[in-house]
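Protocol step 4 of 5: obtain the predicted structure for the target chain.
Materials: sequence only (see below). No template structures provided, no constraints applied. The aim of this step is simply to have a reference model before the mutagenesis design in step 5. Sequence pasted as it appears in the construct record:
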Amino acid sequence: MKITPGKLAGLKAVSTESGTIAAAAMDQRGSLKKALAKESGRDVTDSMMEEFKGAVTEVLTPHASAILLDPQWGIGPSRKRSQNAGLLLAYEESGYDNSRPGRLPDLLPQWSVRRLKEAGANCVKVLLYYTPRDTTEVNGEKHAFVERIGDECRTNDIPFFLEFVGYDVGGGDEKGLEFARNKPEVVAGSMAEFTQERYGVDVMKVEVPVNMKFVEGAASYAGQQAYSKAEALDHFRASAAVATKPFIYLSAGVSNEEFTEALELAAESDVQWAGVLCGRATWKDGIPVYAKEGVDPFRRWLQTEGTTNIDNVNERLKAASSWFATYGVSSADALAVV
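Step 4 output (structure tokens):
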């Protein structure tokens, strides 16, 4: 396995010195606007979005190896990141196409991989709603979509991070018991699909394969069992076993306590995960502070509660492996094209 110079440089830029990815995520758009509007009781302006993202970037990136932002409101805030932190930029439109079934994706119309790279991105990220359980027609369209982005990233020699989030084809509750029982299959099936070389994905950003609220004995357990702890550990192992590319875990909007407990399970399962791209589990509880009190109190909240949250995640990252360990080497440079 060899990696081209641009992809190697991009991956090193978003990694720690030991090769793990300890990235913060601040690319939320539609969901963030709604949350801020709900808490503030007024319309959310572009300047508010940039101010919020700028505060998160400035305060949290000294504790991160990278920050994920969007090009719509994140270009200015990206300049506030710590020198130790690389930059990932999102390429997809916020949300998905509601006019057709299957949660079909789209890309930002004013952007390309070339333009994201010119804007300073070390890596490109795309979010895809995906489940192996959807129709051949829907998933065929999504497969071609990812292939095109993979080819675009190869042409521009920049790493491609693919984030896939599962859903219920029948419109059921994705936070409920039934979907929790199906989630391990959805996560493992998605990883098995997009680890294939044809897609050109360099790092898979994946969901934890279980819902911690349904793991019997977990601190997050809410009273209904989908899996025992031993079964949960096996689900971590089963999803990791299909991966031939590095993968990192996303927090999926859960609390800091729930996400860090999930990372402890990942560590206990002894799988080879390469880090995290963690957003709301570090900063979402500060949304009411910003909305009601303004940026300075929010910045102080980030310096205390937010920093504690990201430090909690970083403590669990001690159990993660380097992204290059996936390829059986002891340093990133061992993968360099000579």
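Step 4 remarks: The radius of gyration is 19 Å. The chain has one domain: 5-335.
Proceed to step 5.
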